[in-house]
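Teaching assistant here, posting this on the class forum so everyone can see the example we discussed in section. The complex has two components, and the goal was to see what a joint structure prediction looks like when all of them are supplied at once.
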Amino acid sequence: MPVIATQQLTKRYPRVTALDGLSLEVGDGVTGLVGANGAGKSTLIKILLGLSDPTSGSAQVLGHDVRDDGAALRSRVGYMPEHDCLPADVSATELVVHLARMSGLPTDAARERAADTLRHVGLYEERYRPIGGYSTGMKQRVKLAQALVHDPDVVFLDEPTNGLDPTGRDEMLGLVRRIYDDFGISVLVTSHLLGELERICDQVVIVDGGVLLRSSTVADFTRASAQLAVEVAHDTAGAAAALTAAGLRVSREGETLLVEIGAGVDGDDTDDTDAGAVHDTVRDVVADGYGLVRLESRRHHIAEVFDPTTTGPSGPTSDQGATDDAA
Amino acid sequence: MTQPEASPAGVIHNIGYRAYDGERLPRRGVALALYSHTLRGVFGLGRAARSKVVPFGMVAVMLVPAIVLSVVSVVMAGQGMIAEPVLPYTRYAMVTQAAVAIFVAVAAPQAVSLDLRFHTLPLYLSRPLERVDYVRAKLAALATAVFLLLAAPLLVMYLGALAAGFDAGTQTVELLQALAGAVLFAAVLSGIGLVIASLTARRGFGVAAIMTVLALSYAVVTSMQALVGFEAGDMTTAGWIGLFSPMTLVDGVQVWAFGVETSSPAGPPEGVAGAAFPVVTLGVVALTYLALSARYRKVRL
């Protein structure tokens, strides 16, 4: 059973269409939901929480339908809102205990879980002080703690790294990864920064203008665009010609030749055996008198794959985009 | 609420993450938890000491006259001067209406304004609670608080009356009438208070607005009644004017239903016409509930 599934999910407001026929399936693990501001990420999360009804289409979270089964669904889901939502005049402990009770935990269990959870997110002595005096990083941790305190099966984290400095960002991303690795809770995390999500996600979903651009595992994303960097001792141009003649797609970057592994000349997707074959071909060709200096695999960052200039209807990613995944 | 945990000296155990397999209360249980949390918060329990000043100050202001009246009852009855309490139970809320208004003006914003000001509602609504549960829990909690504030002095007076040796049967009936009135006062005042408080995220505005609406309407209505009733001699019209302030409205219901003495210059019309008072009272309660529900349906998340 997928953690999240949506079918042709559409949400129209009087003046904007926030989601437009979005169909996707998200499994266990850490899933990144990426898109520019206004792409429909927060709208999607609100619909998944049963807080906002879709205009059309349907969605299920943990097998519960978001329209009919909101309360049951929300007792198994944690939500960290994007914006400031913490009262200034109570301590983190009081707030998290109270919100644990609001998730249905009896008082004693709520106290115990609140203390545990605050420790897990890295709040210690300061948790007895009023939240009004906290730094942004500490506030984000409190928001995370309240999303986890009732031990949900999945958490929705809306822009958890917002407003954090680079160190705070790294710590928060590490925490997010731990939520699945150590706590066993699946995560849907949004960001407008693709780069930070690829470090911690198993799957990445890219939406833009309420439409699914792409959904696949991080490994697929990067494998599809992997290259071999080849440097030879002399006659770089000759080597390039020879490699092209051997049926490979080669480009030149200074004295380095970049051989595509991700897509062969015929444009097919490749798997690991194809990558091996490309390696073998390069080795054989270059051994023929060019003098191999360096041979290394280069893995693209998703951000390069998801270059805005390549996402148009004719861009290289469109063939794996909405149409395939919606099918 | 926030005692530091006693930790065993010098040892830190990393217990790792523990899943929770225990009981999870359904929606009703969660709403009940929000109700009791709000009720405690209204009286400042579990909050800073300064949050307790006004609620408990008003409780004291409400109790002191009741205690004095009880002592008066016991002493005067002992001298055979009176055979019933000096002040009827049903008039107590009206006599102390300023204290009740202050209590509501502070309690209603305490119950809802902070959640609006700090945008805390998404944290509630992403949990099993529905919007309507939130509204009901807040209303019920504030109404309970106002009822407790009104009922406590009535019980003190009742005990005083029993100690004074007044007729127990009559006293019990009159007490129950006043408690029924207290329920109506609580429902009307908390409804109006919460609607006003829910319109502003600023607690100060809420306090001022509620004070103004309750105190000003009472002052205007009773002055108008005095003018029309005594100066112009039209007691019927003066009675109808009582519909326009929450306190005189509910007092009118008590007068109409139980035939007790009115606390305003003019009581409601007798007979069927007077039924307008209970009808309007129930209408106000229903309207404030609908207004609050509509308000929270629109809250931005």
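For the discussion questions: Chain B touches chain A at residues 1-2, 4-5, 15-20, 22-27, 29-30, 33-34, 37, 46-48, 114-115, 118-120, 122-130, 301 (CB under 8 Å). Residues 27-297 of chain B form one domain. Think about how each of these relates to the inputs above.
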